[in-house]
Amino acid sequence: MMERGVEIPQALTSGPSAFIPAQVMEGPDREVLIEAFLSLGRFDHITMVMALHPTYLSCFLRTQHALLELDGPLPRPWRHYIVAMAAARHQCSYLVQQHSAGFLEAGGEESWLEGLQHAHPKIRCLHTLNKLLAHRPWLITQQHIQELVCPGADACWSLAELIHAIVLMTHSHSLSSFVWGCGLHPEPDHVGGHTFCPPSPSNNMPRSPHSPTPEDGKPEVRFEMQSRSLDK
């Protein structure tokens, strides 16, 4: 492939965590590996680190699967979007990218990833509550909930929908802390998780048109930055 001028992506890191040496991370039990793959469709860095505590990982996988995949009041694309929106409060690019991809895979509209202002009005109404849950949850009052569920609200949420959204946001806030605290590296398919081998100096083949450049912005990154900018 390289002889034809096609650049090969290379992972930038050798392990899932900046703090835990890869050589001390034992391979997970086969049952845990199967459960993780069936739940997520991949074996990501969160799973690899949590696999150091198999019982906790098993509970985590079941909980996240229930929140994101099982029957519930919120559409599947909305669930991933809310998780990404909540992770953006902590500038957790890892989760923003992961759930932006999940949002698109579930059938979400790509334009929503341009920023919160492009999302459904009901989603936009969560902005204040999300901000308080992330940084000052003790300031949340009955009025914040009433503004979202009262029949006269501009974009009225049902109580079941709002409970589901709040659980998703708090789950994302907590998981963002886990990602930061464990120093998780980006996944190989995330922005910042890979690089491309340059063509050989002796080979003057042109650059592949499909190779990303530093100025190529992905929707999930723009979503993260713009959702934060709404506070300014």
TrEMBL record:
- Indicate where this protein is primarily found: cytoplasm
Give the keywords, sorted.
Cytoplasm, Oxidoreductase
What's the domain of life for this entry? Answer: Eukaryota
In terms of InterPro entries, this protein maps to: AhpD-like, Sestrin
The Gene Ontology CC terms held by the record are: cytoplasm; nucleus
A Pfam family annotated for this UniProt entry? PA26
UniProt biased composition (Basic and acidic residues): 213-232
Cellular localization per UniProt: Cytoplasm
What does the record give as the reaction this protein catalyses? a hydroperoxide + L-cysteinyl-[protein] = S-hydroxy-L-cysteinyl-[protein] + an alcohol
Any one Gene Ontology biological process term? cellular response to L-leucine
Ranges where the record places region Disordered: 193-232
Record has Nuclease as a keyword: no
Question: Molecular function terms in GO for this entry?
Answer: L-leucine binding; oxidoreductase activity, acting on peroxide as acceptor
Question: Known SUPFAM superfamilies for this protein?
Answer: AhpD-like
Is-annotated flag, keyword Cytoplasm? yes
The record's comment on protein family reads: Belongs to the sestrin family.
Q: What's the protein called, per UniProt?
A: Sestrin 2
